UniProtKB/TrEMBL annotation:
Name of the protein in question: Uncharacterized protein
Superkingdom in the source lineage: Bacteria
Entry coiled-coil feature ranges: 87-114, 164-191
UniProt keywords, alphabetically: Coiled coil
Length: 197
C-alpha cells in the first residue's frame, strides 16, 4: 500500500500532466485545484507548502520544482519567457533603475550645491549693493552740506534713501557715517561741475 506522501505526489503529477495536455496555464494554484487522489477527493491546499519543523525547508520542494519546470516549459512553448528568465530580466531592469536613480540623486546633489553657492553669491552681491547704496548716500549727504544752494540730483539721492530707510538702524548708521566724514572734511571746499560758471 502507498504512503500518503506518495499518493499526494502522484495526485500533483497527474494534475500537472492534465494541465499540460489541456493547455491550461500551469500555476501552483491551478495544480493544487486540479489535483485529486485516486478516490476522487481533492488534495489539501496547504499540504504542498508544508515545511519540515526542524529544517524549515518545504517538505515537497521537489514537487514545487516540478511545477515550476512544467510552467517554464509551457511558457517557453508559448513563446513567453520562463519564470527564471523573467526574474533575470527584472533584476536587470532593477539594476538599471538603480543606476538611473543614483545618477538622478547625484544630479540633485550637484544642483543643490550649485544653488547654495548661488544663494551665497546673491547674499554677497546684496551686501555689496547695500554698501554701495550706503556709500552713495553718505557722499551725497556730505556734498549737499558742502555746496551752496540746492542740487537736484543730490537732493533726490538723499531724499529717496531717507524715505526707503526711514526709522531703521541702517539710516541712523549712514547718517552717523556722513556726519563723521563731514567733520573730518570740515574746512575743505567742494565744487560740483553743475555749480561752476
Amino acid at each position: 500500500m502507498k504512503r500518503s506522501s506518495e499518493k499526494f505526489s502522484d495526485a500533483i503529477r497527474r494534475s500537472i500532466k492534465h494541465l499540460e495536455d489541456s493547455g491550461v496555464s500551469i500555476t501552483q494554484k491551478a495544480v493544487i485545484d486540479n489535483a485529486l487522489f485516486d478516490n476522487g477527493r481533492h488534495v489539501g491546499k496547504s499540504t504542498l507548502y508544508r515545511k519540515d519543523p526542524v529544517t524549515k525547508e518545504h517538505f515537497y520542494k521537489g514537487l514545487l520544482a516540478e511545477i515550476d519546470n512544467a510552467a517554464s516549459r509551457q511558457r517557453r512553448f508559448r513563446g513567453r519567457p520562463t519564470k527564471k528568465e523573467t526574474v533575470i530580466e527584472l533584476k536587470g531592469v532593477i539594476r538599471e533603475l538603480k543606476r538611473e536613480n543614483q545618477a538622478l540623486v547625484d544630479q540633485v546633489v550637484t544642483q543643490e550645491a550649485e544653488l547654495i553657492k548661488l544663494k551665497s553669491l546673491k547674499r554677497s552681491d546684496l551686501g555689496v549693493a547695500k554698501a554701495k547704496d550706503d556709500d552713495i548716500y553718505v557722499l551725497a549727504k556730505i556734498l549737499l552740506g558742502k555746496t551752496s544752494g540746492s542740487h537736484e540730483s543730490l537732493d533726490s539721492i538723499v531724499r529717496r534713501y531717507e524715505i526707503v530707510h526711514k526709522g531703521t538702524e541702517r539710516l541712523k548708521e549712514s547718517q552717523a557715517a556722513a556726519e563723521k566724514l563731514r567733520q573730518e572734511l570740515s574746512g575743505a571746499t567742494v565744487s560740483l561741475p553743475g555749480m561752476r560758471k
